[in-house]
Each structure stands twice: as C-alpha cells, then as structure tokens.
Amino acid sequence: MKYCQQCAADLHYRIPEGDDKPRYCCLECDSIFYQNPKNVVGTLPIDGDKVLLCKRAIQPRKGKWTLPAGFMENGESSLEGAIRETDEEAGASVIVSENSLYTLFNLPVINQVYMFFKVDLENTLFNPGTESLEVQLFSEQEIPWDEIAFPVVKTTLQYYFEDRKKNTFPVRMFDVHHAADRKITTTLISESSINENNTNNSSA
Asked: Do 44 and 90 fall within a single domain?
C-alpha cells in the first residue's frame, strides 16, 4: 500500500500509538489500515459413498483436483460463502445439516484460514463453473490422491473416509506449517468430543 484510501496522502509503515505491530498509517488524516488473515471457505459435498471434486481451471495448481472453495466475500457468513463457492465452481446445490463445520486449517505463513463444511448434494445436476475444468463424483478408491491440489483438501478427504467407517464426524482444527525446504506439515491441534451421527452418510 502506498496511498491512503481516505485522503490519498502517502502512507507510512510504522507502529501506531497503543499498538505493538507496524501498520500502514496516514499522517494526514490519522487513518490506520490493518492487514488481516483471509478466510477461505468450501464444502465437502457428499452423495452416498462419493464426494464431489473439481479440477482446477486456474492457477495455482491448475489441472489438479480440489474441493469447491474460495475466499469469503464481505457481508456473508462462512457457511454462506462456502455454499456460494460450491455453486460457482461446481454448479451444485447442497443440503446443510446441523454441525456441518468439519475441518478448519490455520496457515499462518500465508495468512489464511481454511474452513470446510460437510454437506449433502441435493441432486447430481452439477456442472463445472468458469474456475473448473471438470466436476466429478469419486469414491475413496477412485480419488486421484496424487493429483489433489492442496494439503488441506487431501487431509479433509482422508479424515472423512476414516470417519465414515465409524459414522462419527468430529470437528477438527489443524495448524499447517511451511518449512524453509518447502516441506508442509499438518498438525491436529483440536478435535471435538461430541460426534455427529448422520445416517445419510453411513457405510453400506
């Protein structure tokens, strides 16, 4: 940031009075501009024993498979954003039940938080949006595990198929760290003690 969004004066990167972190500050109108983590929201859309994945049509990870997800917009809740992204990327309508929040990932290195909600497909009338090359349902055995776009998506899928065997779906929170050698580690830091029993997703 170079210029104040309020008065167009030059900005200065300094620690404001009463704060402990440097911010972009305007010395003319005293405006302070905070840069905070971005929220990425998406769904884990389920149909029977299969999940819906999208093949990315854009970078990063173009051509790789992912869950429908994207950045939250102002004026919407995290769940509303996840449902919107599912419609935009997969053309899919979903049914949301209670306790739909499933996984949450903290990515402090890139200042992002990911949230995935477990939902049921309302029907199988889905079509790829502008950011997707293909949209397809996969069983656990059919998923192209080596072609999954992001670690947070792979972790969510792995836990889902394990949870499905027990028909219990606790909410989990993870910390994701990026090392200097580009190695990514995902650490489970919280798991709910109250599990959801959803007969619609029970094993056959």
From this structure: yes
